[in-house]
# Entry
Amino acid sequence: MFEREIKELYEKISASVCSPDCCKCCKDMIQFSPSEEKNMGGYEWKGKCRHLKNGRCSIYEKRPFVCRLYGTSVLLKCEKCTPERFLSEEDTFALVREYNKFRNMEIGELKRTIKS
Ligand code: SF4
Ligand code: SF4
# Structure
């Protein structure tokens, strides 16, 4: 698993402050890597993410890459999120490329484990 490498990518994303009355992005299905799924204690979607409780993310510190990126990149701006800074388009693409590399390697590792 590439948990450490993925967590290092989190550090490149600005902290953001969501408006307390907003949970818009938590109603979309999200993508995550196998280690992120484990870290957040599984994932289930029934019209919204099961980790959304009382209008807030109940696993905020353990939320996956995509949840961190939303609202903090110029490409994924949302009305009610106030990040410390926005990631540029170039930095966003670079970060997503890195993330996808580790995510795909984790998925490959998982498939090999299941087959053996
Ligand atoms: S993990 Fe948290 S931030 Fe991400 S979709 Fe679920 S509730 Fe929202
Ligand atoms: S990231 Fe934006 S859309 Fe998602 S909950 Fe926060 S304020 Fe709402």
Remarks:
- Helices lie at 3-10, 34-39, 65-69, 89-115.
- The two ends are 17 Å apart (CA to CA).
- The first strand starts at residue 16 and ends at 18.
